[in-house]
Amino acid sequence: MIHEHIRALLWVFGFLAASMGIVTLAPEFALNRLLKLPVGDETGRFFARHWGAMAAVCGGLMMWAAEVPALRGPVMAMVGVEKLVLIALTLGQWGKPLFRGLAPAAVCDVVAVVLFALYACEPMIARG
Fold this sequence. Notes:
By secondary structure, the chain is mainly α. It has one domain.
């Protein structure tokens, strides 16, 4: 069932990830206004910009994989690992306000990782 919808799912999750490229271009606007996260010093802005660029690249790769089935496995594996890291970092620091601000991203990433895993396992499940 996931195989029938993976193209659309990759476009949706890819677009959501790619939209975080706004953090690279306008970190204060994106962090303060959109994500409700405090802007730190120059080091924090640098790493936020890098994260925004990485998220945008991952999003672009997912949208590319939506159209090129041969890319789906490797792209979903790579993006899935990145998403698992964000989930683990967010849950591991849950008591801190910064990480609670990332909760929506972590929830979205949990959904994506579960769907990616189901996509990978679906052929094995179907064979029974």
